[in-house]
Amino acid sequence: MFGKSGKSPAARRISFSLALAATGVLALGACGGGDSGGGNSDAAQSGNSTGPITYVQGKDNSGIVQPAIDKWNAAHPDQQVTLKEQTDQADQQHDDLVQNFQAENADYDVVSVDNIWTSEFAAKGWLQPLTGDYELDTSNLLEPTVQAETYNDTLYAAPTTSDGGLLYYRKDLVPTPPKSWDEMMSMCPIAQQNGIDCYAGQFAQYEGLTVNTAEAINTFGGSILSEDGKTATLDTPEAKAGLEALVEGFQDGNIPRQAITYQEEQGRQSFEDGKLMFLRNWPYVYSLAKTDGSSTVKDTFGVAPLPGNGDGKPGASSLGGHAAGISVYSDHKETAFEFVKFLQSEEIQRDWLTQGSAAPVISSLYDDAALVEQFPYLPELKTSIENAVPRPVTPFYPAVTKAIQDNAFAALSGSKDTDTALSDMQKSVQNAIAGGQ
Amino acid sequence: MSSTSGVATGEYAQGEPPLDPGRRKSLHDGSGRRAALLIGPTILLLAIVILYPIVTAVSQSFTQDAGLDPSTGMFVEGGFAGIANYRLWLLQDCGGGAFSCPPGTLGSQFWTATGVTFLFTVVAVTLETVLGLIFALVMHRKFKGRAILRASVLVPWAIPTAVTAKLWYFIFAYDGIANRVLGTEILWTGDGWAPKAAIIIADTWKTAPFMALLILAGLQVIDEGVYEAAKMDGAGAWKRFVFITLPLVRPALMVAVLFRTLDTLRMYDLPKILTGGAGDTSTLSMLVVDQVRSGFHAASALSTITFLIVFLVAFIFIKFLGANVTEQRAPKARKAA
Asked: Hey, is the C-beta of B61 within 8 angstroms of any chain A C-beta?
């Protein structure tokens, strides 16, 4: 690397360039640049026409989207839809959409939005409100899926898939699933006698922790934000009872200490290995636990709605799912609107369930005998979604979820007591919805 | 953070005066114009890809992030912010005065993130340097199978960081290999010291070979004759190491250390994938990326601060390195020869 002459310039040149390489850090901030605000009422008015459009969504892992588009294209030769697939990483999908909206890209006609992004995109004026000419009939949909896409009393995106949490349990050990959290905890000695862990959800410091924390708080009657989304409401006894339930679970050992590192997959692994009696997870686990070669609980597990707080109602799941939004920059909004309705039609919803086990948004499909036979968890899933609460509907969701995750993690890992964690959570969520930091 | 390689020559050409006075003279008599013509496009390109983002980032950092208009619920541009974005990070001022950012906000995490970034840098780079030096000394010896050893040592370095992080994520799982081998039940991605240790171990595993390679390059240019002369003078192995190897390998070593220090100060993907920031392991770069999703302008301020920190560290190194290389190395080498 250095000549024997030992002159400094070679070394200095190299090191100097390295120093300047540090400038790369700056580019990070600058890349995100560009203005991000302003309602765009002009754009919302124009473009009422038909023509070819593009539908943008994350990677279609179960291969159900292209067949749906093929169906549409066969019936609408002059209004062809092209599928643009993004990566399968949610964060990157979000950032890709943001960049294209900022660039006012007319090629992103219909975009698939995770329900936690809708209010942010709506508040930035990027989504066509589904009112007036674009009014959508939502009467046959599951209510929480509509609520999650509603910002400022206006519907901004059409729900296309849903998702809710389920309680997986070992019916060989517990013949009747618990109806309430306390009942579930009282069953934990059974797990102990069998030398296995009792209950686990997703408690690692990531989005899953927000989901689980919100479920606990909502189940015990608390809430994170007020109805209008303008005030944090975590300083209530109900919210405390919810967080306390999880904290006590960890303290008692009813939730194993390693669950603080669990995301979806670690919990599923433990359950399928027969080392866990109760697991909170999404419906995707059902078919895997039935068919995985390594699953030891194939014939011994059942599903139930999440346990409630003892008042007879099931627990409040956090709502998962995606919706289709129409870009205000689209030149062919009429086609886009028709296509959105098509995605939501019973035909496509049924296809997506049978071909990719995607949870439908149409209520009646959950009662369809043929479908229930194929997907025995549908009735429980319906209960779960009907009682689900959307995660905080706020344009400042990234900051809100961060505030929840950090403080809930501190409480569950024991580095903060419940009261401090909750009051910090209240303050930081309030700070987040006031300005986004 | 990718456009690092192009920076080198251009910035050097811009910033550093030519060191050889003779050469400078020749630039003035005719060939100067041709030289300008030749490096012109490079400078223009660098201005576009380096200067423009920097200027934009710095100017954005003085703008307020868009806020909600309470009557419409829509975002409106924020306008001039003064130094509010810098107060947010440096003073943890979320709008209510110094230290008003409640725990759980990004603003409250700046100093924690700075601390943990420096902790990673100091501990990991020290470990990497020591291990790298040992590796390099071993690889420098002549023995059978040396080529295979050199190639295999480099494997960890060849693996992409994201893959390394995922690999160690599985190793450090609760029922993963690490706990089984050690017979422990440590929550490596949980809370406390364990996640920090996990990141340092993974980073050291990945980059010690890189250190070894750079140091080895330095070792190979040391003249064997120097050692022979020292041997004749009766210097033992330890003395030869301390008085010959170390001083002569020092320039290579320092560049390796500088390179790794800058890399570690900007570390993002390894902790992001391994711990996701659990147990206070969010680095400055992770904070920047998190903030980009909440507001670009505050993120610009943070990346400007991060840039200044990294630049300052680099600058101190160069001063330090430059002085030692020029004043110590040359005379010693001469004396030894």
From this structure: yes
A324 and A239 co-located in one domain: no
Structural domain span for residue A118: 9-163+319-386
User: In the predicted model, is pLDDT for residue B146 greater than 90?
Assistant: no
Helices B193-220 and B110-140: crossing angle in degrees, nearest 10, is: 40
User: Across all residues in chain B, what is the average pLDDT?
Assistant: 86
Amino acid identity of B118?
F
Is A105 found in the same domain as A213? no
Check whether residue A24 and residue A99 sit in a common domain. yes
**Distance of alpha carbon A56 from alpha carbon A97, whole angstroms:** 9
pTM of the model: 0.85
> Taking the C-alpha atoms of A88, A89, A91 and A92 in order, what is their torsion angle to the nearest 10 degrees?
-70
B108 contacts on A by Cβ (under 8 Å): 428
Give the CA dihedral B47, B53, B59, B64, nearest 10 degrees.
170
Of A230, A260, A435, the CB nearest to B190: A260
Cβ–Cβ gap A12/B102 under 8 Å: no
Q: Select from B72, B304, B330 the Cβ nearest to the Cβ of A29.
A: B304
Chain B residues touching residue A29 (CB < 8 angstroms): 57, 60-61, 288, 292, 296, 299-304
Neighbouring CB atoms inside 10 A of A131's CB total 12
DSSP label at residue B29: I
Based on the domain organization, do A91 and A235 belong to the same domain? no
Q: What's the domain count of chain A?
A: 2
- Best mutation site among B248, B282, B293, B334 for testing chain A: the one with the most A CBs within 10 Å? B293
Please state the ipTM of this predicted complex. Answer: 0.83
Indicate which of B302, B317, B325 best probes the interface with A, i.e. most A CBs within 10 Å of its own CB: B325
